[in-house]
Amino acid sequence: MSALPSERTPQETAEMVRERMYANDRAVQGLGMDVVEVSPGHATVTMRVRDNMLNGHEICHGGFLATLADTAFAYACNSYNELTVASGFSIDLIAPARHGDALTARSFEVSKAGRTGVYDTEITNQRGERVAMFRGRSYTIKGKPAVAE
């Protein structure tokens, strides 16, 4: 039986949000992403670069890297169970990701004030090499939960 919202710890809330968001997140599931860790204002998401993610240069298409980072950002900023959406983001592609690479996106809260937030996400490969840096800006819709209780 699940604890009442007022009885949940912030960590329990973050984990409940991850579980319920993931259950409906067809994009993340379809791309083979795994939300491996979440805590208030933080999230870690992994993805293996598949053949159908490669561009004409035989490297991972930048759009997939942006999607991976955006996913970690989404789980981090919704971890309080307040409906939060992206208001914008930027990404710097630092090194290529190649077929078979195991990528990890770690997102953390830089600032959260009122309805807006700033989150940074670093993507690394299995060797710990930085592949990309992403900065997301969020907007919280007050009074609406990210997931149903």
Helices and strands, in N-to-C order? HHEEHEEEE
> Which structural class matches the secondary elements?
alpha+beta
Alpha plus pi helix count: 3
Strand tally is 6
Radius of gyration: 15 Å
Number of structurally distinct domains: 1
Strand order of the largest sheet: 1-2-4-5-6-3
> How would you sum up the global shape?
globular
- Please, what is the oligomeric state? single chain
* CATH C-level name: Alpha Beta
Q: What are the key terms here?
A:
149 residues, Thiol Ester Dehydrase, Chain A, six-stranded antiparallel sheet, 24% helix, globular
Brief overview:
By secondary structure, the protein is α+β, with helices and mostly antiparallel strands.
Describe the structure.
By secondary structure, this protein is α+β, with helices and mostly antiparallel strands. The chain has one domain: Thiol Ester Dehydrase, Chain A. It is built from 3 helices and 6 strands; from the N terminus they run H-H-E-E-H-E-E-E-E. It has a 6-stranded antiparallel sheet. It starts with 9 loop residues before the first helix and ends in a 9-residue tail after the last strand. The model has no long low-confidence stretch (mean pLDDT 95).
Provide the fold topology.
Elements: H1 10-24, H2 26-30, E1 34-39, E2 42-48, H3 62-77, E3 84-93, E4 102-113, E5 116-124, E6 130-140
Antiparallel strand pairs: 1-2, 2-4, 3-6, 4-5, 5-6
